[in-house]
Protein 1
Amino acid sequence: MQDNYLRFGNNQELVLNIFRWLANKNPLECHKFSVKEEIKLGDIEAFSITLSNPHGKRLEFINCLLESDPGVKILESQEQVIRSLAPYKSQTIQWKIQANEIGDHQLKLSIDFLKNSKWPSLFFDVASQFQCIPNIETDIVIHNSYNSIPERLEVNKPVEVKAVFHNQKSANLPSVRLRLETSLPSLKIDPINTLSDINQSWKVVPQKAGEGALYLLVEGIEYKKTRLIQVLPSIQNQIESLSFDILAPLQDKIGRTLIHLNTCLDFEKIRKIPVQICTPDFLADNIYSDDVAEEIKESIQSLLADDIREPYVHHKFLEKITPIFSPTQGCYIPYEPKLAARLVENQDTDAVNTVSNSLLLPWEYDTDRLDSFARISLEQNLAALLLHEQYGHGSFFHQTRLGKQLTILDKHGFVPNTDPRKISAPYPRNLYEEYREVIEALWDSSIVVNEGFATWVELTILPLLSTSLGQATYRRRDHLFNKDKYFSIRRKESKYFQAFPTSYESRYREGYELFQRIQGYFPPEYGAPAVVAAMMKATDVDMGIVENNNEQIQFSLSREQMHQALFKRHEDDARSDKRLLRISSCIHMLDKYQHRVTEQAVISNPLAAFSKLVNEELGW
């Protein structure tokens, strides 16, 4: 140490003490300074020190003064006096201290010799140091998570992280400032409430997949609580991956297969109909009214958070969250593996089948990885839904006369069970209320043909795509025909189905069987074109529903005229389901008809003969 620094502070005294110690000139040896490294807030602990007399002369009246910073209270007296310390003997003295402030603390010790002024005083600026920690246990609780360790989070899905206090001794919690840190650089942490003593929380947004930890630290001390976390790809990332890796190749494969069917449908236009794999929340927001969407989203949260396994709850939920074709928006295919896994938890095979066909849940799906078996199962379900929704319903709504009129109705909210209060007043609400009964009847009359054709497209084309995809045909057929009970419920409230009941409970089966009958009559190269031709004939219904230049809906027929057309028993001109039934009944007349006609084009082409026969017999 340079001489220039000896005059600063206690440097001179420090140097003298060092030399005295080296020369064995100190009157006392001080050792075994003892105190806990961590003391809980409010606890009383002991600080002790051992003094030894290294000389052959007795020491008397040794005064020991202990001092502390403001956060520590020294109980009883700060001073203790050793009246006599024999030569070469030792004595331990102690003080009781109480830490009253969280953080780092230091103790200072001064030793004076009251009866011998020749001995220099001893001063320990840092006799000991320790940390005062909260007298509580803290923990990290993550809300909106899957309650597992390591905690599973999702990219871009915010969670709330709360500090939970478990008080050990008192209901009175100390004032504690906490800090949340992480080992993951991609984890964004923003405080929500860090001013309260008992409700401190943070918003955490994972921005990249990975594994790491959250650390809860107490300000001012080395105290840390650790929680392991795992950040999974977000559901949106999974959807993007499915869309790129599975959906797009399937659309190419389906397009190449359908182009060889030689039908009158414009499959290129149908292929351009939007298809979205989406979350149930997204589907609810885009398809349903605000109040219904909120109800659905609340159900989703309840199903994820609570132990709900009642079949009724599942059934009501899956009535709304299922693959849907919107004539004006396209196809929505809901995907949520966590929710799907929760819905099938402890359920039987039928429940698994239902959920897998609604939420793209593959059989025995591990939600953390997509193995080859799970991928095939996903491809099967997605291919079936593409054929059914995009190409089946898309053909009906976008390429048939009846379907285009129903699309206009859908665009303006003129669909069954619409609450008139959701439609603007006075126009078009008054118009809807006037035509409400016949609008519902028109929609009902289209179900057999619309769903039957979509089912025929799905079950016919699926085996043509590949052997592995074709294996799903039986499972899908069983689901559509045996699990669906739509008509058993609808006929109770539908005047149309009360007047014209269906043969089956399933909405998919009757139309499919009529199309199958038509296809089976023709040679393979004519079967599919005959089905499409029959579907186009059955839906060639003009109810005079149009939009004017201002995109306002107009009805060319009065309500009474539409009612008569839909409900008059002996005329099927307006009822597409009955038109299809009568068209299929013409098949048995085809052989005799071909022998009767003279035109060579009709004789050599059974499809042309069939079309001409329907026109002559039915006038369509």
Note: The first helix runs from residue 11 to 22.
Protein 2
Amino acid sequence: SHRMYAFTTRAARFVAKTPRTASSRAVSPARAPARRVHDAKRAARARIHGAAGASLERTDDAWIVVGCDSDAHGALCVIRGPRRGVVSSVKVIDNPVSTVMINGKPRVRLDPDAMRESAAALGVPKRTRVYLEEGGVEFGFSAQTAFVQGYNFGLWRGILAAQEFDVAVVKPQAWKAALGLKFKGSTKDDSIAMAKMLFPEIVHELSRKRDHGRAESLLIAAYGHVANGAAAAEDDDALCARVRDVLVDRGLVREEGAPLPYFGPYFGMTGEELKKELKARALKVSGTKSELILRLEDDDAARMSRQAKSATA
């Protein structure tokens, strides 16, 4: 189906190590790219990327992850649990807005003062990881809409950074593609339906069409958790398992076979963006998209190895 294709064409490589609770889900082998490195090499790379993400998500008895849909109709969510991936409570907070006059017309815009108060009132410690969506500019957007998207993102990033949170930027095309929501005809209702499946604890707060911002903040947080470090966790990860189960239910992955597709740091980047990054590192820029990603990750692994050696020297 077109949904399966949208999901699997972005699967450059498979994550080598995933939580045992859901290790049997897979992308269709017919669509999965050929493996180009040995399992041991991929496992080492997954551990490196997992360690990078793990340092920013709390792993003690106060595991917390925050998601933020940055536009005026978006929301913040706070997911808590006793340990990584175990969800004990979910809270959503609508983005604070006010009505302002622009060119003689009333417009709904984010309220910076109230945003600061909302961020301070989250009740989470410093260094908590926040997954913040950077609203993309889509075909047909006016200059005004594009400006507002960037303005909203910049406001949230500054306010969250001022609270000393660790802000990780998430591209909408990345999380939507990974969760099977980037297809022709996809609507906000699809986001709400998926969020209800992933977080049944909070379905009562996702009952209206206008709750799509709440739903997307939850999906952003879930995607960020899976993409950054969850694959390297030693223990079972219940949130990761939830994501997989929902994808299986929607027919986006199969129940048997290898783990979820590649969710690494270069997921969602275009070929040109990958080549630009390679060029900046003075690396070869030719090859398929999966080869470009592999080259960047090999370089990342080599850098991490050198840093580890110098630290112990």
Note: Confidence is low (pLDDT under 50) at residues 1-61, 231-235, 256-260.
Protein 3
Amino acid sequence: VALLAASQPGEEIGAVNGFKLVVERRSEGQYFVNLYGAVNYSLGWHVSGQQVLKAAHQALSLYEFEQRIAGTQRRLAGFKAQAEDLAALVDKPFEKQARLDELRREQIEIDAALDLDKGDMSAVDDSVPAEEAVAA
């Protein structure tokens, strides 16, 4: 960090993670530092470049945390909207219910005609030997 090289108020002396690092010289030996980007942060007064970098990393950690909170809030809003949509579907009648009932009745009739509801192989002709039934 070119902290001591900052000769003019508002001079950009570098960047940290894509954020502009701007130093204003307020008094001899102390520098007021700002971080400019998607969100602006005032890093306060510092006397060394190491202090500036530490403050910048702390501010960016806060920014990343704020971004995660915002992202989580957006996802939560999406989940709430999805839950409302699903709740509306639960209350909505099944539009193909009549057709489903009809198919179930037909299935019962077919099962009764073939004696499938009596179990095992009651519909199989016992007069045909087992070997011929397998070969067929």
Note: The mean pLDDT is 76.
